[in-house]
Design goal:
The complex is a heterodimer. Chain A is mainly α. Chain A has 14 helices and four strands. In chain A, the strands form two sheets. Chain A has a two-stranded antiparallel ribbon with strand order 1-4. A two-stranded antiparallel sheet of chain A has the order 2-3. In chain A, helix 2 packs across helix 8, helix 4 runs antiparallel to helix 10 and helix 11 packs across helix 12. In chain B, a hairpin with a 2-residue loop joins strand 1 and strand 2. In chain B, helix 3 packs antiparallel against helix 9, helix 6 packs across helix 7 and helix 10 packs parallel to helix 12. Chain B has a two-stranded antiparallel sheet with strand order 1-2. Classes of the chains: A mainly alpha, B mainly alpha. At the A-B interface, helix 4, helix 5, helix 11 and helix 13 of A face helix 3, helix 4, helix 10 and helix 12 of B.
Chain lengths: 322, 288
């Protein structure tokens, strides 16, 4: 029992230490790659609250897109400092989530999933059609680099540390939320919302809160992405990206907070050699199908499963004759 | 808008609507029985079109043979998907939806290395034009209407008159009770998958000579089919037919007036509003 509590702690401590040391050992390419991996981790982890409530959100990238475009446009056209534009992007994403989520609360399962699918297409089309603002399909370029307190982060190392800091801060907040009373309520809604309601839980309010919190952080991830890549292209935030975010959660495992983190790191790194090509999607979808069919608990259940197999084999094997 | 333009929009709307209806019928049938949305429906539509490209255009087989071949081939594929994906997940709706989503992105992405990066074109099968109420319309679009109507009528008769159709309706009403009465739920679900996939393949095969072919071509009709089944009420077959006709007409008139992208955007805003405020559809069917 104690080992179970210590192992994730040690793993995350080692992970954070390695992440802190990466600029000492890796080239700029690795810093760039890992900054994107951290963005994916934030996206995956921020989908978790609504998944925990049993809401299948297939439109998370739409909220990322809102955060990205809002922050990029505020900084580029109105000269907002990075911290403020990022916050505005994330807040707008959360406000849109509240507006969509409030009436969508009554919907369950398939219906909610379809609203979010339609939503991500609406956001993509708006970004595509609203050419005077977003430059449509020619893409939005010339987005200023991120800055902190007026100091522009020009080096990849400093931008990498910003990504790392944002990810750790967001993960800490999400972890605190999940291990609080609120997290318990979300879990109870996901498992049996009728029962939760009969016990006096205001399920509508909590579903909405979980959805908006997740979308707020998706907006943060989008805003960071905008100032890091410095180029936005509407189809990037389409259906495919939304599916990938779901895939991180399912492949990593939905049963534990670490699931989406493990899933996002594992899949982003493994698919890196063919990023942007059809093979990336092929790889993702096969990983997804294999996980759902053969490892429904996700990657985080793999050690326990392997351990169980070994233990069983040892137990059933005939004892060696001395 | 002149009268002739109106007639033209109406007929084109009817033929596009027929394609949407064929897509939507399979979706709504599968939803009614299994409470799932087949996200891979658009990919199957794409595969149906590519069967026409390879068997009819490259292979030189007669068009109707290729058409039936596409339906059979993808019908079998549908049955296998039920065996290999739906059944092992044992009714978990969320994992099933995500697995079908993964199947869809897999088929679409695999289309690029398999079919090549360039758009494909199938030469016209029914060349020429015809005068309808004083408007010249291409035969290619007109011929879709009777074929789709025949398929819809066939499906309707199958569901209302045959024993398998009765079993499907029984599963739709109550899966456990149907199983207790001796209905083999697995096989019947597999047949529903097969029928849904075959109809999607048929719509892809009908559209192949008209539109360009690429692996992502199924996304738009899939989203249109979503709109239709929500409009008609999820699980309702008459609703899907009426919804398809309405959307086809809106599509051809609004798209002519505003352009394709704004029309598409409008239909999405409409679907979101509809889902949010009247999730049972215009005609009311399955409760959310």
């Amino acid at each position: 029992m104690r080992r179970r509590k210590i192992a994730p702690l040690v793993a995350s401590a080692v992970g954070v230490l390695l992440a802190l040391l990466l600029p000492q050992i890796g080239s700029d390419y690795y810093l760039y790659l890992f900054a994107l991996v951290f963005t994916n981790v934030v996206l995956a982890a921020s989908l978790r609250p609504s998944l925990t409530c049993g809401q299948l959100n297939i439109g998370h990238s739409g909220f990322m897109s809102i955060g990205a475009y809002t922050s990029a446009l505020l900084a580029k056209n109105l000269g907002f400092p990075f911290e403020i534009s990022l916050l505005c992007g994330a807040l707008l994403a959360a406000i849109v989530a509240l507006a969509i989520g409030y009436p969508a609360l009554r919907l369950r399962g398939v219906y909610f999933a379809m609203v979010t699918v339609a939503f991500v297409e609406v956001i993509r089309l708006v970004a595509q059609i609203w050419v005077p603002l977003t430059h449509g399909m020619s893409g939005l370029s010339g987005i200023p680099k991120p800055s902190i307190l007026g100091m522009t982060l020009t080096t990849k190392t400093s931008q990498y540390y910003l990504a790392l800091f944002l990810m750790l801060a967001i993960l800490l907040v999400l972890w605190k939320l999940e291990s609080s009373r609120l997290g318990l309520i979300w879990k109870s809604i996901g498992m049996a919302d009728n029962l939760a309601q009969s016990l006096g839980v205001n399920i509508a309010k909590h579903k909405l809160l979980a959805f908006a919190i997740g979308c707020f952080f998706a907006g943060v991830a989008g805003a960071f992405y905008a100032h890091f890549i410095r180029f936005l292209f509407p189809p990037e935030f389409g259906f495919l990206m939304a599916t990938n975010i779901l895939v991180y959660n399912f492949v990593g495992g939905r049963g534990h907070f670490a699931g989406p983190i493990v899933g996002a790191i594992f899949l982003s790194l493994l698919s890196e050699p063919f990023r942007g090509s059809p093979y990336e999607t092929i790889f993702f979808s096969i990983a997804m199908l294999m996980t759902i069919l053969f490892l429904p608990g996700g990657l985080i259940t793999l050690p326990a499963k392997l351990g169980g197999l070994m233990w069983r084999r040892r137990a059933s094997a005939p004892s060696p004759v001395a | 808008m002149t009268a002739s333009l109106l007639v033209q929009s109406a007929v084109i709307g009817l033929s596009i609507g027929s394609i949407y209806i064929l897509m939507a019928l399979g979706l709504t049938l599968m939803f009614g029985m299994m409470h799932i949305i087949n996200f891979a429906h658009g990919a199957v539509y794409m595969l149906g079109a590519f069967v026409i490209y390879y068997v009819f255009f490259q292979g030189g087989a007669p068009y109707f043979a290729a058409f039936v071949g596409a339906m059979l081939l993808l019908g079998i594929f549908g049955y296998l998907v039920e065996r290999g994906i739906y059944r092992p997940i044992k009714g978990g709706i969320e994992p099933t939806l995500v697995a079908l989503l993964a199947l869809s992105t897999f088929l679409e992405a695999a289309g690029y290395p398999v079919f090549g990066q360039l758009d494909k074109h199938v030469p016209p099968v029914f060349a020429g034009t015809r005068n309808v109420l004083g408007v010249m319309l291409s035969n290619e679009r007109l011929v879709i209407i009777p074929i789709a109507a025949a398929l819809v009528a066939g499906l309707y008769l199958f569901i209302t008159k045959t024993k398998i159709g009765a079993a499907m309706r029984a599963i739709e009403q109550d899966k456990e009770a149907a199983a207790l009465q001796g209905v083999n739920v697995h096989v019947i679900n597999g047949l529903a998958f097969a029928i849904g996939f075959a109809l999607a393949a048929a719509s892809g095969a009908l559209i192949a000579p008209i539109f360009k072919l690429d692996p992502m071509m199924g996304d738009q009709p899939l989203l249109k089919a979503f709109i239709i089944i929500i409009l008609g009420g999820l699980g309702s077959i008459p609703g899907a037919i009426l919804g398809g006709l309405i959307l086809g007409l809106i599509d051809s008139t609004v798209a002519t007036a505003l352009g394709a992208e704004p029309a598409f955007l409008l239909s999405f805003v409409f679907i979101i509003l509809l889902l949010l405020f009247r999730p049972t559809g215009l005609f009311g069917h399955a409760p959310p």
